[in-house]
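Continuing the batch. This is chain 6 of the set; chains 1 through 5 are on the previous pages. Same settings as before, nothing changed between runs. Recording input and output for traceability.
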Amino acid sequence: MRVKIINRSGNPLPAYQTESAAGLDLRAELGTPVLLRPLERAVIGTGLYMELPAGYEAQVRPRSGLAAKQGVTVLNSPGTIDADYRGEIGVILVNLSNEDVTISHGDRIAQLVIARYEQAEWVEVDALNETTRGAGGFGSTGHG
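Output for chain 6:
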């Protein structure tokens, strides 16, 4: 799939790091580093703008290494970028560690997964088909 992109960041375009990777790394576009204190959050720009085809979304997800090693994650994970959005891609980062974390220009801060979707058409009814599970939720199917 071909996706139109504008790169105003000075960073390389997002890239897959391995042959079978699902996510493209997003990098911070910053004039000055951002200090995230414990439990602080910030919207970090990427300097990227894109035009997705209709029927696709881009999901902004955490990078596992950043989360595991520094306690920094994407707050609204996954964040959805709709096909009709034309603004800068921003990433809401939160520091869940007990230490200050500095985000610098060019740091890999999140990953972007492009996925197909369908829009639902609601059909109002008075009853739903019965299932074995029924209305059970939040752990109702057992342990493990």
